[in-house]
Each structure stands twice: as C-alpha cells, then as structure tokens.
Amino acid sequence: MTVKSDGLSAQQIAQAITDRKLSAFEATEAALARIAAHDGVLNSFTDVTADRARTTARAIDAKIAAGESVGPLAGVPFAVKNLFDVKGLSTRAGSKINRDLAPASRDATLIERMEAAGAVLVGALNMGEYAYDFTGENVHDGPSRNPHDPTRMSGGSSGGSGSAVGGALVPIALGSDTNGSIRVPSSFCGIFGLKPTYGRLSRARSFPFVASFDHLGPFARNVGDLALAYDAMQGPDAADAACTTRPVEPVTPLLAEGLSGLRIAIAGGYFQKNVLPEAVEAVARVARALDATQTIEIPEAARARAAAYVISTTEGASLHLDRLRKRPNDFDPAVRDRLIAGAMVPAPLVDRAQKFRRWYRAKVLELFKSADVIIAPATPCIAPKLGQATFVLDGVELPVRANIGIHTQPISFIGLPVVAVPVPLEPMPIGVQIIAAPWREDIALRVAHALERMGVAAAPAPRGL
Fold first, then answer.
1. Is the distance from CB of 130 to CB of 335 less than 8 angstroms?
2. What's the pTM?
3. Is 181 designated active site?
C-alpha cells in the first residue's frame, strides 16, 4: 500500500482503495486515529463503533481481493447524528431519556444504503436534544465545538456532524434538518451540506422531531463527496410514508454542466435584513461570482418563520407528551419549556399556520418560473461563542438559540432543496444557501460545484486543532 488517507476526499479514498493503493482497513484505522487524537477537543462523537468499522473494512478488503465490486464509496469512513438507528446502540437523539431504550435491532435505511455503496460507519455524533436546537450545545453530552475555534458553537442540531466533517475526522457525515439543522452547522463549521427536497431521502429508523418538516442529508468538505453520498442514499422506501416513489436521479454526472442556462436570483427583503456584515459579504461574493443581479422577494417570509415555529413546537410537543409528563426533569430545561409551550398552543392557531403554509408554498413555487436558483444567507452571523445568550440584529438584542435559523426556517417550512456552501471569510467561515425548486437538487449542486471551482466556496482546513 502506498497512499495515506489523511487529507483525502471521499472520492480519492474510494479510488485508492479500488486501485489497491490503500486498504479499507488502513483508511478506517486512520479515521479512528484522527477521532482519538482530536475528538477530545471537538466532542463530536458520542459513540465510536471501532469494532464494527474494522469488521466492515476487512470484509471490503476481502471482496476487493476476490475481484468483487464494492461500490462508489469503497472504504470511505462516515458517521451519523445519533438520532439515526445504529444496530446495537440505543438511539439517543441527544437526550438523557432515550438512553434507556433498548439497542436498535437494525440500522437506519440511509446507513444501510451508505454501507451498500461501500462506506464504513465509524460512529454516532453529538447533537442538540431531540433536534430542538441551533447551537450544538448539549446539556447531557457537552457541546460539540467548532473546528476553527473551539470556543465557538458548531451549530445545531447536527452539531457533531458539522464539527466532525469540519475538523476532518471523517469525510462524510449524515444529519437531519427540520428548521435548519444541516445548513446552520455547515455555515458555522465551514463545510458543504445538503438538505434535499422533503421526501427525497428515507427517514426510516431515525428518531423524529417534526414529521412534516424532517429531512435527512449529508455533510462533506467538497461538492463531489456530497453528491456521491446523496446518490448512494436515493431511492423509494416503503418504511417512510413521506419518501417519494420517484426514481433515482443521480446528480454526480451532472456537476460538470456548471451554470449554463441557469437563471440565478438573490433573495431580497426579509433575507437582506437581520444580517451582520459577514453574512452580507458572503452573499455578495457568491452573487458576483454567479453574475446574479436579479433580486426576488420571497413573500411573507417572516410570517412563514412564525408559522414554522407554531407547527414545530406543537408537533414536537405531541411527540414528547408522555416523556414530558413522566420525566420532565430529565430534559434540557430550554427544550422542555418550549415543548410545554407548544402543548398549550390553541388548535385554531395551528390550523391557521397549516393553511398559510399551503398558500406560501404555492407563492414561492411561482418564483421558480423566473429563476432556477435563489441565493440567501444561511446564518445571520459567524458562529457565536459557546454559551453566548444574545446577539444584536438590526439594532435589536435577540436570543441566539431562537434566531440563528432566521433565514433557514422559511425554506425548510415548504421542503425546498438547499445546498449550504461555505465562504471562507476571516476570522471564520460562513454559509450561503443555494435554493432550488422541488426535486432539483441537481441544479443546486451544479451551482455549488461551480462556486467551488471558482474558489468562492471552499471548506477551510480546521484551524482550532
């Protein structure tokens, strides 16, 4: 063997293993060594599945030695947010209460699909309790930390996923996004993240938060790896009632098509308010690179965010009512109190929020008649300091936890596909949303890939390790 896997992309690792220049076992050991060396700082992992990973890697090497195909992710290490079922582990979902659950008897569908493509699961990742979080600060497991400055937040609720990929512990991680939980950690940790169309990827055997909003998706340090993981996970799944029956539509072969023929607009109005200078600069850099001059007003985005809050908190409260009654003191108090508030929202308000949701979706979809892609901030600022309670937006002091997702919630509210791209500013990176029409992940990824090739979007090397 002549290649070391440290610093290689998922594509490079898979190619080296397929070419027998690197073994899957060596790639796995290198990932486990990186985790051992750096996770004491990052606190990304809650479980490291070393024995399972080594067994899987040896099996891959045996198949290659026998001349068998092992898939496009041959030997690539990956990890998952701990709301995914992992056979043999209790599915924590970031909570204390779930640790009493029996170990999962089967992996989540997306883990099975990643492994069918040759990937090697190395562990489960830290997250905000029950995914109701934007900070990455978990009161039970401690905060996952930012790989560029460990005194700062990783973002949530998929904070461990963001810090593990941003810190180069693994090339790919999986997370979930209900109101922004893939896009916020991507922005803070300086990596690429994909929130696909609602229903595109199966959520089977993952712990829910808000069933009508929940999405699962990948994180990576480059667009090619992101697309490769996404393609591996596509496909119908009868075990998730929301999962589309649309055929698999591979995006990896389409990345090189670039920007040809695409109409790109900038989200105006609401999306240009409540942002700090770093978010303004990141969007401006992306707009200049894409030669985007058209501005589009997304109607009633502020009301969409309010409606998203109403539906999130009421659906979440309904899911957790029994736990709230029996074990209220075992919740993160901030999560518990929001869920209790959700349980008291009058039904007519929920009905109004759902009716507005249908109206809003129809209005936003009309915008895609004049644009193929809309760009918008992913977060209003770079990663705040751990423990920071408030920040000032548009002259108003606001709670950090509640307002980090100010620009992500109006988009996931109606299930649009989004790629978060990192813009490497100083002193910290920040993300921009590339938003497309439903089922057009290919377009969002093409734009992200073009930005990467231009050097405008890039995942910086971790500076805090």
1. yes
2. 0.98
3. yes
